[in-house]
Amino acid sequence: MSVGTLPTPHLPGSPAARPSTARQRLRAGVGLRALHHLKVLETHPPVEWLEVHSENYFGQHSSQRRSLEKIRAHYLLSLHGVGLSLGSTDPLRLEHLSELADLVCDLEPVFVSEHLSWSSIDGRFTNDLLPLPYTEEALHHMVSRVSQVQEFLKRRILIENVSSYLQFSCSQVPEWEFLAALVHRSGCGILLDVNNLYVSAVNHGFDGCTYLEGIPPNAVQEVHLAGHVSHRIGQHSIRIDSHGTQVSEAVWNLYRAALQYFASPPALIEWDTDIPALEVLIAEAEKADRVAEALHALAA
Amino acid sequence: MLSLRELQRYFGAALFDSAPQAIMPWICSDGLDVESRICLYRNNLLQGFRKALALEFPVIQRLVGGDYFDQLALVFQGNYPSRSGNLHHIGEPFPQFLSGLLAGTGYSYLADVAALEWAHLIAMGAPEARPFDPKALLKFSSDSFPELCFTLHPGCRLLRSPYPVLRIWQVNQSEAEVTEIIDLDSGPDRILVRRGADDVELHRLLPGEFALLLVLANGATLGNAYDAACGADPRFNAGEALCRAVALGALTQPRVSRQSPS
Q1: Between chains, do A168 and B41 touch, taking CB under 8 Å as contact?
Q2: B26 vs A170: CB contact, 8 Å cut-off?
Q3: Which pLDDT score is estimated for B261?
Q4: pTM for this structure?
Q5: Among A130, A164, A181, residue whose Cα is nearest residue B7
């Protein structure tokens, strides 16, 4: 299916000064958490865009939602969902989708994204991002769900790769082939989380560059950069996606490699636990910009 | 070949019911053993739920201590797993869970403290309780006033406890060590939880005020609510109580009985 470009923003009642979602090359942004709202409103940090977890802003009356609307007057926003459970064989939650649609309508985000995962079965939710088996049945299911959501929201969504700690023996193709097929059949975009890619690559013994080569370059619309930790379980070392530290050198290197494949999609610094001062996040975003600029200078 | 739904059910059983036997043969076993891999996800499930519950009930966590709270979270999750992709919903059955668990013990007050915490949280997401325009009453004759009905504003909730839960909640709002000793027999509390302009307010109500609002909230007429209020408090002052309720925005949609809200 062809989903096309971003729809013309619908602006009734919107402040005239709101940053436009018209296509522009974006510098690196940062994930916005509630504890930084006031600082953002008071100091207007030098970033072009901010990303939030959609579910935290459902409901029109919370002070957090109102605060975000004030922030939207000065910054582009991206909505990153964690709770739609797209890959679950349970029915799609229409009330959840409606809340998301309301938020999209209100905030006119530059990106709307979810995950290549599932998090619920028989009505019980793990509120985690569980990996899928990469089978034809699962692909058919994800295509159907992604298409349904894009139809409902009347826009293209980005699907993010998740960190994983296991693989299913019934998988018929590797994850990158599954993701490429999902893009081809549904018209969705890709949010490439380079940290998640690194974690999964180490945990499952594949080459991150093979993954980068295997996904359609024009589909990668956004990149996440985040931190992880290493744990020892017996004699084995496993990477755990903590999203709670600075981006590691190995992930910066994988990001440099990714930029050879993709035409500089905007990067976002994601930090979800042990959240540091806003200045730390801004500094990471500036580093991401320098990495991209250095590569462009080399290529020129 | 395993269907996707079967695979998800088997995996769900491993995570929610600690029953990994069915899914284990379907997980690649190179490197780290399969049980450890499943444990990583089970740990995420438990930790994520516990942290979200602690954010919703910080006063309960302070009162019972971190270790006991973690145990409570584990048992609560087993009985009431998350039913939504939005983690903000998990706490709704927690007061009822505590009520069942602690009934008949010296800790039954914790259920009412949890109910107050939950009501406060819900009010944060509710619309601001603004007073209705008094001109709306001009269309009613004074004869019809006893037949007036109101709706409790969605930004308001009423809570009653035999315990001094409001004071317990208040002293546990800061991180500082609490030295005040609160006598559990110094209740009861009758509380109006109200969504204000920027925050949630907790108002202690007199017995008559509470009875008036509770009866009105249940759909009764002003006349019936007045009788109930006088029954609860012989010194009940209807004029003051109604003015206070209207000023707080607690009452909305005035109408004569048997009419639908406009």
Answers
A1: no
A2: yes
A3: 62
A4: 0.91
A5: A130
